[in-house]
Design goal:
alpha/beta, globular, single chain, binds S-adenosyl-L-homocysteine, binds magnesium ion, 35% helix, Rossmann fold, two-stranded antiparallel sheet
Length: 215
Amino acid sequence: MTDATMPPDLLYAAERAKGFMPPAEGLALFEVACAYGSRGPICEIGTYCGKSAIYLGAAARHTGSVVVTVDHHRGSEEIQPGWAHHDPTLVDPRFGKMDSLPVFRCTIAAAGLEDEVIAVVGRSEQVAALWNTPLAMLFIDGGHAEEPARADYEGWAPHVMPGGVLAVHDVFERPQDGGQAPYRVYRRALDSGAFREIRHEGSLRVLERVGPGIG
Ligand code: SAH
Ligand code: MG
């Protein structure tokens, strides 16, 4: 696909960043973004603390592209207090709400990727409604409940340029391995006939856009 390798300082930064991106899947993201990034911008839905944004940002630097990463930074349903992946250090006591934005900012600044990674703070569906730029790569890793996952697909997948890629995280074929909403997004993209699968690494699926009709 490409022989690009992550610079060691960025690899180190990515691996120690807080978040939900196993190294092998992060490297796959980096490689895919390196292969497609020269065609246009990369968009990520679901920034959290910037872990995956480092892999994508490294590829943006390599290809002269840019990463736009969208998150309201208030946490998905499945990372709120009481849920397994909740991190109490990310709660802002002034509002009694999660806030991953300060950690994200620190992570990206420390990695030296402030010129490559642009944060958009807001609800994905609101931002999608304003979006009009063809994307070389779309990475969907936002809310994993049925409704937000569906809205991310419907709002953003039409912006993937022909020949561009859609990557979906946390795709589990078997319900016993994890929630099914990202899997349904993946199936829907494939079944639309507009995408074909080009890479599979852990729970990361990468599809290339081959046709116009995204259903
Ligand atoms: N990519 C990250 C993990 C993302 S976790 C990593 O590498 O670690 C999912 C993120 O999606 C959370 O930060 C949550 O705030 C965000 N999110 C969930 N639903 C959203 C929505 N409707 N709009 C914007 N962001 C959303
Ligand atoms: Mg994920």
